[in-house]
């Protein structure tokens, strides 16, 4: 396990495999792969078998958490790697409060996007 893997594992409380995500979203696994490819979800290889997994917090009530795709686009435009995006989304921010991922789940996406945009400056 690399240092960044260990850091992300420490930050992200729980993970879902792509089939689990597909089940929660009530779609085919191919659709989940498409969401990852389109940058609407982040999946990273984890564990012994290096299975693609998505943070469980990204999936709300049978849909991807509102505001996540836009936030990921902003971070990618700022040059963030998937690992850096995960680190940013799951690192507590006392000004939010909580983590950006929690804020998105609580429908506070505007605040999260404002912070993501500020990173570009």
TrEMBL record:
> Which Gene Ontology terms cover its molecular function?
DNA binding
> Rv2175c C-terminal domain location, by residue?
65-120
Q: Does the keyword DNA-binding apply?
A: yes
Q: Where is the DNA-binding protein Rv2175c wHTH domain?
A: 4-59
Q: Does the keyword Transmembrane belong to this entry?
A: no
Write the record's keywords in alphabetical order, separated by commas.
Answer: DNA-binding
Pfam families for the chain: Rv2175c_C (PF18367), Rv2175c_wHTH (PF21531)
Q: Which InterPro entries match?
A: Rv2175c_C (IPR041098), Rv2175c_wHTH (IPR048576)
For this entry, the protein name equals DNA-binding protein
Q: What is the native source organism of this protein?
A: Streptomyces palmae
């Amino acid at each position: 396990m690399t240092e960044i893997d260990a850091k992300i594992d420490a930050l992200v409380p729980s993970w879902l495999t792509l089939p689990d995500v597909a089940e929660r979203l009530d779609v085919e696994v191919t659709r989940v792969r498409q969401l990852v490819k389109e940058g609407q979800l982040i999946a990273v290889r984890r564990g012994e078998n290096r299975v693609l997994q998505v943070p469980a917090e990204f999936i709300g009530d049978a849909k991807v958490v509102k505001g996540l795709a836009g936030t990921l686009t902003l971070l990618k435009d700022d040059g963030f790697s998937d690992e850096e995006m995960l680190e940013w989304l799951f690192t507590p921010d006392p000004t939010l409060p909580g983590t950006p991922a929690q804020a998105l789940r609580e429908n506070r996406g505007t605040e999260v996007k404002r912070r993501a945009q500020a990173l570009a400056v």
